[in-house]
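Q: For a teaching handout, I want to show students what a protein-ligand complex looks like in token form. Below are the inputs, and the small molecule is S-adenosyl-L-homocysteine. Please produce the holo structure.
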Amino acid sequence: MEKTIDETKQGTTLKLENSVQNGRKLFIESYGCAMNFSDSEIVASILAKEGFNTTQTLADADLVLVNTCSIRDKAEQTIRKRLTEYNAAKKLRPHLKVGVLGCMAERLKDKLLDEEKIVDMVVGPDAYKDLPNLIKEVDSGRDAVNVILSKDETYGDIAPVRLNSNGVTAFVSITRGCDNMCTFCVVPFTRGRERSRDPQSILAEIATLWDKGFKEITLLGQNVDSYLWYGGGLKKGFEKATKMQKATAVRFARLLEMVAQAHPKMRIRFSTSNPQDMTLDVIETMAKFDNICNHVHLPVQSGSNRILKEMNRLHTIEEYFELVDNIRKIIPDCSISQDIIVGFPTETEEDHQDTLKALDYVKYDFGYMYAYSERPGTMAGRKMEDDVPAPVKKRRLSEIIALQREHCRFRTEKHLGKIQEVLIEGTSKKSENEWMGRNSQSTVVVFPKENYKVGDFVNIKINDCTSATLIGEAVGYSDNN
Ligand code: SAH
Ligand code: F3S
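A: Here is the structure, written as tokens, with S-adenosyl-L-homocysteine included.
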């Protein structure tokens, strides 16, 4: 199943669209979640103002920044290897500086500088505005660190520079951090307290994207359903808000509505939804606006109530099923995707069977499945033994993936014979002569190019499918152009 991703393979070099040259070149590489890719665009914007241009060629770089992921051990190992390679490159080019950004910077702090001596600069996810100062420190021969987490930094005032962009789809961050404390998850430690961004700055960013010709945005947050703006954005500060602020607070459903109304022809997606925080008014808002895509990414993690409890997921599997039923009642053709962790500490064969049963119940359109990886500092890492043997995790993971693959096919087959609106994002990976785009449900669709172009909304008749891809032919432009 192609959508089973391994974060460590997502590292890519990003190309800066436009900047004022200062003669120095930045090579920036991102790993992990969409938020990291989005953050790299913020970093590029901050450094463009300092005159840095970007390069996709390491040999041309004066500064290498690696935006890192700590979510699983394997991601960290891959990035460490990369950092060692960059460090080795310094032997040939002594002026080259290497900085680590993102979650590993936060988690390992100055360990990478002091003990391992493989980088010059360590910058946590809330400290990117300090990069110009930190670079000056490094230029004058000192190491530089800023890993201070913030209660209010949302980078709301920074217009991201779109990197490696197809000019059609873009990410827009709406919240940062997470207050949920799932016991397996390192994110609350690396990205700090949950805070929401001012809706006006979100709308302004989307308006700029629209003016530049972008056609689809994805609103990003670790937990978009707990978006909350009341004049301030810190979730924990809401209790102290005034009566008036409470009465006029903007929650996620309202934000979605504001965005959908502001740009009726812009496609809107969002990720990630947390089952315990998702409310039905979000689904009702999706149903009300044609331009909000019919897809919900709804991580379940496990089908066993005992394991869900151990994970501190604050819902039962029955409550999760009820939410799924309600989503499908309100939007019958809504696609639903999952994240699942197998082999969480104490997971028994029976728990695993419960997860397979949950898959059978929902029959997800697609999903992202992982073997549990113990993260130091998390509650599970401190209190629970990582006691499911690796071969057992591996076998359970392959059973889950195999069943999900069947469901992927079951879902893609349901699109056969239909005519669906697709936004063209680029050339298909498999054929130069075909376009690739996605339908509302976020399923990939490929079809012959004819005279259509990137950014067109096209009606596609779906003739065939694999488990992950729909194959079709264009029958004309959709009304949305
Ligand atoms: N709410 C976040 C979740 C971030 S982590 C979001 O925006 O998607 C993404 C997924 O990685 C989680 O849903 C979980 O399935 C997986 N994951 C997190 N910590 C993990 C760990 N310690 N081991 C294995 N998988 C993990
Ligand atoms: Fe992690 Fe749970 Fe938040 S998975 S990002 S602690 S919702």
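A: Two things your students might notice: Residues 71-72, 184-185, 187, 222-223, 272, 299, 301, 339, 341, 370, 372-373, 375 surround S-adenosyl-L-homocysteine (ligand 1) (CB under 6 Å). The chain is about 35% helix and 20% strand.
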